[in-house]
Amino acid sequence: MVILKTAREIAAMREAGRISSRALREAGKAVEPGVSTLEIDSIVRKYIEKQGATPSFLGYGGFPASACISVNNVVIHGIPSARQILKAGDIVSIDVGAQFNGYHGDNAYTFACGDVSAEAQALMDATKEALFEGIKRAVAGGRVGDIGSAVQRYVEARSYSVVRDFVGHGVGAKLHEDPSVPNYGTPGRGVRLMPGMAIAIEPMVNQGTHRVKVLDDDWTTITADGKLSAHFEHTIAITSNGPVIMTLPD
Ligand code: MG
């Protein structure tokens, strides 16, 4: 069931979104060769807690950290580790959520660690742009399929693929609410978009096949062919005046 939010709830969600966004920005500043992914997770956790908020992911379904940190061929749900040391050329997808005053914000960004290959940079640029193609279609009266098809078209025109097994989602008092927001679809199909809906749009884009595998830790999700993957996400409110990005730092 899709839960529509009042203007007051949307305002509260913007606070949670702001904290999530700033936490992600802090995480990005820490991405450099020689840093462990656990150190970055610690920065995220401390930042969120200092704001009087709670890391949305910590303990969610048993997830052991505050941020998902997914390097190179890891698509999503990478578990931060002291043993994983970033090196120049890595691409580092960081997904951060914060709960504040009862509402969640959820966002992700893929950062370059030092100088990355032109191919890696192109993948990151296309994924970020695909997110904004999706956001443009997050308008009242449209359908969820309008968002997914815009993302998919943009991505596949550049010979990349969109992950099918994981999708965007509604956001609110719960981190994951209805509807599902796939990064693929057919224009004019799916749940109708209405003012008061809050959704996370989060393209996960692979260099090669769209197929993924989940490792034995039940979290770490990698590309089936070992090629790179990128991930960008914003939490959006659908309003009568168009989409409003809630996960912005200012
Ligand atoms: Mg999400």
Main sheet overview: 5 strands, antiparallel
**What structural class do helix, strand and pairing data support?**
alpha+beta
Q: How much strand?
A: 25-35%
* SSE ordering: HHEEEEEHHEEEEEEEEEE
Whole-angstrom Rg: 17 Å
* CATH C-level class: Alpha Beta
Give the overall shape: globular
Helix content: 25-40%
Numbering strands along the chain, what is their spatial order in the largest sheet?
8-7-9-14-15
| CATH architectural arrangement | Alpha-Beta Complex
- Mean of the pLDDT scores? 98
The total of helices stands at 4
The distinct ligands, each listed once, are:
magnesium ion
Summed up, the domain count is 1
Q: Are there runs of 5+ residues with pLDDT below 50, and where?
A: none
Per the CATH scheme, the topology name is: Creatine Amidinohydrolase
Report how far the terminal alpha carbons are from each other. Answer: 31 Å
Q: How many beta-strand segments?
A: 15
Going by CATH, the homologous superfamily would be Creatinase/methionine aminopeptidase superfamily
